[in-house]
């Protein structure tokens, strides 16, 4: 078994709300398969459109009521009023959610589109901490854990990588407990982010976000969305692969090698982007030979990443 400095490393997955009844059925199978690996939490993506907001809340409900998984609710502040955000955070608390991934969200494509009351994620973090203080009774002695986004490759709107580091420090000062990274394709991008963050005074855990990608078109779409250029060798290998299982293996191999390097360099755990498919995600986790995960190990590592 490989030796990883952070023992036991945390394990989490990202899923998104299904758009059709068929996708909902497929997601049920995915959630069962993910639950079998005993993750610390499963994060549920968020988008501010009313329909997507409803499906996000439904999925959180489903995870809480019908699985053994613990949900982490994503929340974005772009286009939203402080009142709406306050209501949503209160609603999360009333459902039993205890972890929020607080982000700004992508700006509307239309320059005249509604940007909302808060221009940056750090204001959302502060709002969540205020709502938490008002709901201390509902939370018992507990506390909401707040995660934030971090960028191994410069955020597309940011003037520099160093600026991103200062923004991450600001999020920590506003009350963030840990960060999860955007996808990246070179091991040194994660280690470079952590080194620069530590030098700047960021002390919260920074969990690498990993994608066992099995589809070259998805890789291209992701690159357009995030501004992270796809690895050319990975893209070529996926393009040349003939079968789905070959593509899965290629994506898992690539993500496993990134994850192993990050864990050997001291990463506190791994967060796996699943795109609602379990095969690549669970194969990746198996490949990493994470120390045996049990319910009690889950609590230890969850406490470390603040989930
Ligand atoms: P911020 O930290 O507010 O930064 C946004 C931009 O503003 C950056 O360029 C930053 O450098 C700049 N900035 C920040 N503060 C300042 C300041 N004080 N002065 C000047 N410039 C500043 N999006 C969704 O819509 N839904 C999701 O569910 C979702 N999940 C995600 C999960 C993860 C793990 C990650 C990494 C990203 C996710 N995203 C999601 C995407 C995210 O919303 C975008 O990357 C968004 O563009 C930035 O969000 P942020 O929270 O990092 O913003």
Please give a handful of descriptors for the protein shown.
single chain; 307 residues; alpha/beta; TIM Barrel; nine-stranded parallel β-sheet; 49% helix; 13% strand; globular; binds flavin-adenine dinucleotide
Can you describe this structure?
Pathway: One-carbon metabolism; tetrahydrofolate interconversion. One of its GO terms (molecular function) is FAD binding. It comes from Galactobacter caseinivorans. Keywords: FAD, Flavoprotein, Oxidoreductase. It catalyses: (6S)-5-methyl-5,6,7,8-tetrahydrofolate + NAD(+) = (6R)-5,10-methylene-5,6,7,8-tetrahydrofolate + NADH + H(+). The protein has one domain (10-306): Alpha-Beta Barrel (TIM Barrel). The protein contains eleven helices and nine strands. Strand 4, helix 4 (121-134) and strand 5 form a beta-alpha-beta unit. Helices cover 49% and strands 13% of the residues. The relative contact order is 0.17. The two termini are 26 Å apart. With 307 residues, the chain is an alpha/beta fold. It has helices spanning 21-35, 50-66, 82-95, 121-134, 161-174, 187-200, 216-226, 232-240, 244-264, 279-288, 295-305; strands at 10-15, 41-44, 71-76, 99-103, 145-150, 178-181, 206-207, 209-210, 269-273. The chain has a nine-stranded parallel beta sheet. The mean pLDDT is 93. Bound molecules: flavin-adenine dinucleotide (FAD). Residues 45-47, 74, 76, 101, 103-106, 120-121, 149, 155, 157-158, 163-164, 167, 180, 182, 209 line the site of flavin-adenine dinucleotide (FAD).
């Amino acid at each position: 078994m490989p030796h990883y400095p952070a023992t036991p490393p945390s394990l989490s997955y990202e899923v998104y709300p299904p758009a059709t009844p068929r996708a909902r059925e497929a997601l049920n199978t995915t959630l069962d398969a993910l639950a079998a690996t005993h993750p610390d939490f499963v994060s549920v993506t968020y988008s501010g459109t009313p329909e997507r907001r409803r499906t996000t809340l439904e999925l959180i409900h489903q995870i809480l009521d019908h699985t053994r998984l613990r949900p982490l609710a994503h929340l974005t502040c772009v286009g939203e009023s402080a009142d709406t955000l306050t209501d949503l955070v209160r609603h999360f608390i009333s459902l039993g959610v205890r972890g929020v991934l607080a982000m700004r969200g992508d700006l509307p494509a239309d320059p005249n589109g509604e940007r909302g009351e808060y221009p940056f994620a750090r204001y959302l973090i502060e709002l969540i901490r205020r709502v938490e203080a008002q709901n201390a009774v509902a939370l018992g002695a507990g506390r909401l854990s707040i995660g934030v986004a971090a960028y191994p490759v410069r955020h597309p709107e940011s003037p520099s990588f160093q600026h991103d580091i200062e923004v991450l420090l600001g999020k920590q000062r506003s009350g963030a407990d840990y960060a999860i990274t955007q996808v990246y394709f070179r091991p040194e991008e994660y280690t470079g982010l952590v080194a620069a963050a530590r030098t700047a005074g960021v002390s919260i855990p920074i969990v690498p976000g990993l994608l066992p990608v099995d589809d070259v078109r998805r890789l291209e779409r992701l690159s357009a969305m995030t501004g992270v250029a796809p690895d050319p060798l990975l893209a070529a290998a996926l393009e040349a692969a003939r079968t789905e299982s070959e593509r899965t293996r290629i994506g898992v191999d690539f993500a496993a090698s990134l994850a192993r390097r990050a864990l050997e360099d001291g990463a506190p755990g791994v967060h796996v982007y699943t795109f609602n498919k379990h095969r690549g995600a669970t194969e990746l986790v198996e490949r990493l030979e994470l120390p045996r995960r049990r319910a009690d190990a889950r609590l230890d590592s969850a406490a470390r990443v603040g989930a």
